[in-house]
């Protein structure tokens, strides 16, 4: 009898965590490494939010809370959905988890049966397919390549839907590409989904507030109200509020689904951290004045990185609409040999040689389901980004 679960053999560890860990190990060994793998803002949580957490501790808010979120936080989330997205959710239609990942996982655990399919556009966040597999479902990967701006077309979505399709998992702005769908682009997809009443929609809106160049964010249930009763709209405080470590994600959806997700959470983690929930109330209800300056900061870094990477021989880096990632193609580097003799057979070999020879840590594109690319997180200092781009350029110029 095998000790480990057969289910575990279906999934793999997170490649982004692996890259970040490797970079830290090399730094600890004395190597000069620039890590561009971590997907989190490099600045601190705003002071008003930190103070709300401190007050919660001082006031003794250190006990268990309701399994899927305090009433105060659910009210704040409902107000956020109404204010920013035009979506009307009652507190009974809102769930809170320990990060967006748990919210998505709960949804899949609560709904997927063996053989149920989940359509996932590629490139995708590395955890999506594995969460589907852990829940017993089957990920159906549909490529959305550089030729369509990394955006899924209506025809591709239509072609992927089968009688076994249960969910369409959607992310805009995207991790890893930064691509964001306009309301018009979304409408083309929602028109397809309206023709398939048994397909549910899970919209990952985690990067909602990180958009540039006057882009206007939209979410599927907002664009097509007819989908609201079969849409789970997921978000969180990690990215816009620099609260990755606080671990608060949330979602709004039909009450039946929310209750089922709560049942899963009640037998796994129970409630999210009480202190983090109190801080999240302040994040959503308090001042939002820091969001625009942060957008401007990330836009400047985006422009710096796009220009720097497009100056590298063999690299083509599109300009993303949001998030804090770029997803350049390295098609022009494949088949070459590095200065130290590494054969660049694919994007993983490119990323490995780049780390070994130039001390720049990036995540290879195959981890996100679309090659030959790599992901850069530009959520770090301008100085580090400039030096990283210089090293990448040097690496590319020495390929033969």
Distance between the termini: 51 Å
For the record, the count of structural domains works out to 2
The percent range for helix content is: 25-40%
- Sequence of strands across the biggest β-sheet: 2-8-7-6-5-3-4
Radius of gyration: 21 Å
List the helices and strands and how they pair.
Layout: H1 15-28, E1 34-35, H2 47-58, H3 71-85, E2 94-97, H4 100-111, E3 117-122, H5 127-134, E4 138-143, H6 154-160, E5 165-171, H7 183-194, E6 200-204, H8 220-223, E7 231-236, E8 249-252, H9 255-266, H10 274-285, H11 291-310, E9 325-326, H12 347-358, E10 360-361, E11 363-364, E12 374-377, H13 382-397
Parallel strand pairs: 1-10, 3-4, 3-5, 5-6, 6-7
Antiparallel strand pairs: 2-8, 7-8, 9-12, 11-12
Helix pairs in contact: 2-10, 3-10, 4-5, 4-9, 6-7, 11-13
List keywords for this structure.
12 strands, three-stranded antiparallel β-sheet, seven-stranded mixed β-sheet, 12% strand, alpha/beta, 400 residues, Aspartate Aminotransferase, domain 2, Aspartate Aminotransferase, domain 1, globular
């Amino acid at each position: 009898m095998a000790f480990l679960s057969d289910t575990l053999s279906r999934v793999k560890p997170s490649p982004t965590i692996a890259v970040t860990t490797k970079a830290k190990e090399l730094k600890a060994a004395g190597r000069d490494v620039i890590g561009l793998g971590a997907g989190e803002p490099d600045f601190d949580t705003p002071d008003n939010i930190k103070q709300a957490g401190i007050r919660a501790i001082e006031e003794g808010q250190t006990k268990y809370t309701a399994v899927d979120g305090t009433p105060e936080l659910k009210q704040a989330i409902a107000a956020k959905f109404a204010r920013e997205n035009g979506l009307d959710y009652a507190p009974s239609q809102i769930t809170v988890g320990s990060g967006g990942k748990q919210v998505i996982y709960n949804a899949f655990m609560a709904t997927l049966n063996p053989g149920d399919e989940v359509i996932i556009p590629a490139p995708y966040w590395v955890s999506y397919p594995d969460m589907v597999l852990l829940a017993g479902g089957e990920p159906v990967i549909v490529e959305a390549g550089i030729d369509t701006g990394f955006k899924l077309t209506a025809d591709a979505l239509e072609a992927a839907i089968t009688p076994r399709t249960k969910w369409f998992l959607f992310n805009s702005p995207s991790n890893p590409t930064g691509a964001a769908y306009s309301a018009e682009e979304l409408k083309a997809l929602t028109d397809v989904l309206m023709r398939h009443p048994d397909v549910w929609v899970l919209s990952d809106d985690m990067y909602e507030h990180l958009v540039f160049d006057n882009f206007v964010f939209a979410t599927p249930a907002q664009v097509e109200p007819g989908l609201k009763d079969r849409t789970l709209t997921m978000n969180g405080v990690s990215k816009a509020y620099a609260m990755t470590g606080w671990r608060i994600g949330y979602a709004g959806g039909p009450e039946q689904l929310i209750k089922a997700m709560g049942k899963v959470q009640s037998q796994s983690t129970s409630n999210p951290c009480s202190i983090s929930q109190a801080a999240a109330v302040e994040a959503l209800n308090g001042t939002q004045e820091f969001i625009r300056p942060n957008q401007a900061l990330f836009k400047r870094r985006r422009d710096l990185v796009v220009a720097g990477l497009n100056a590298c021989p063999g690299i083509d880096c599109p300009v993303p609409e949001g998030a804090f990632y770029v997803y350049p193609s390295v098609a022009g580097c494949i088949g070459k040999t590095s200065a130290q003799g590494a054969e660049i057979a694919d994007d993983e070999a490119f990323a490995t040689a780049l780390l070994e020879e130039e001390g720049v840590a990036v995540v290879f594109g195959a981890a996100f389901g679309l090659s030959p690319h790599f992901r850069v997180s530009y959520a770090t200092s301008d100085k580090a980004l400039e030096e990283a781009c210089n090293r990448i350029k040097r690496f590319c110029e020495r390929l033969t």
